[in-house]
Amino acid sequence: KNAKMVTVSEGKMAELLEQHPSLTRERVEEFRDSFNLFDKDGNGAIDDRELQLVLNRVGNQHFDLEAVSKMMASVDLNDDKKIDFSEFVALMARSIKPFQEELKD
Predict the structure, then answer these.
(1) How many CB atoms lie under 10 A from the CB of residue 90?
(2) 7 phi, psi to nearest 5 deg
């Protein structure tokens, strides 16, 4: 089985950091590692069940499948019911922001 690992070129990294100023290069690399870990079939996209595993592991909280599907819909720009790496970064940036704000209080 030829599982393809998502990689982040310098150009793509610069684009993601510009789109999400709250993120660091290290955080994007962590997201890439998580994405690759949970893209079980190596197709370069993750579905709702794969994403649920990621969020429950990375977010340290429990997300049910319905909540995950709603989250996915909010970033699934091409409406294919899967999210690619750029969409994943957008979702993770949004998901961790409230947590970061809590830490500042």
Answers:
(1) 18
(2) -120, 160
